[in-house]
Design goal:
Layout lengths: L1 E4 L2 E4 L6 H10 L5 E3 L3 H8 L4 E6 L7 H15 L4 E6 L4 H16 L4 H14 L2 E5 L3 H5 L5 H9 L2 E7 L5 E8 L1 H14 L8 E6 L3 H14 L4 E6 L2 H4 L7 E4 L1
Parallel strand pairs: 4-5, 9-10
Antiparallel strand pairs: 1-2, 1-3, 6-7, 6-11, 7-8, 9-11
Length: 251
């Protein structure tokens, strides 16, 4: 993904680190924008492999998926011997990461190419994602949230618990008064939205709030028996619309 700061473009994870991004986000004159990889960007990457799997941000949130499919179709006309499949992750951040972890597992277990595709398509449909925004500043500045609504929500200390729909869109799941209640509610949401947790991985992504993420992990471990729990820092593209203190979970 491309991040645009005051007219200068940076490739997320390529020529700007998370630390550099967070610093620029606080000191930028204008709120940064983001842009999807072009079909040309994808084609340049296709040269690097033979059996290729592409995982994009949800098609409901970004044009990345459509650009990847276009690139695949153009590329396939010239390089017919290469196998390329584009997955719409219906997700972002750690939710997208869970699908890639599943891919590695399937490859290590010697699944065939077609089996990998069908297994992952089903796996992606089952991934649940929820997140809490501690502050509304970035959403307001990016134009994704009405300024008046944002100020009212902030003044009343209302925390918005957002969730991913089946088709990869983001919707308001619940409104909770105060950070502590939002934290507790997020724990309960896991129980209502999953089963066989001992077979699943919980991913926790945070925006510069590692202690909060670790506390959430500890609370979850008291209640549920996940196969594994992963904590990671939220990437720049997602953090552009979240804000410091944001917590996102996928399972």
């Amino acid at each position: 993904m491309t991040l645009i700061f005051d007219g200068i473009n940076f490739k997320d994870g390529v020529d700007i680190s998370k630390k550099e991004f967070y610093h620029k986000l606080k000191n930028s004159i204008h709120h940064p924008g983001s842009a999807s990889p072009s079909p040309g960007d994808f084609i340049n990457t296709f040269h690097q492999g033979d059996n290729i799997f592409v995982f994009t941000v949800s098609s409901a949130l970004s044009s990345s998926y459509n650009n990847a499919v276009l690139a695949k179709n153009l590329y396939a006309k010239q390089f017919t011997e290469k196998a390329i499949h584009v997955f719409d992750s219906l997700n972002a951040s750690i939710g997208q990461g869970l699908a890639i972890i599943k891919l590695r597992e399937l490859i290590e277990n010697n699944h065939k190419y077609d089996q990998i595709i069908s297994s992952l398509e089903e796996y992606i449909k089952e991934i649940k994602t929820f997140f809490i925004l501690e502050n509304m500043g970035n959403l307001i500045n990016s134009g994704r949230l009405n300024k008046i609504v944002g100020k009212i929500v902030s003044a009343l200390n209302i925390k918005l618990i957002m969730g991913k729909t089946l088709d990869g869109k983001i919707e308001l799941f619940e409104k909770v008064r105060g950070s502590k209640k939002a934290f507790q509610r997020l724990c309960k949401i896991i129980e209502k939205n999953s089963n066989k947790l001992e077979e699943k991985i919980l991913g926790i992504a945070h925006y510069n709030c590692l202690e909060k993420a670790q506390s959430f992990k500890q609370e979850v471990e008291k209640l549920y028996n996940f196969k594994d729990i992963i904590i990671t820092q939220m990437g720049p593209t997602i953090a552009t619309y979240a804000d410091e203190g944001a917590l996102l979970i996928s399972f």
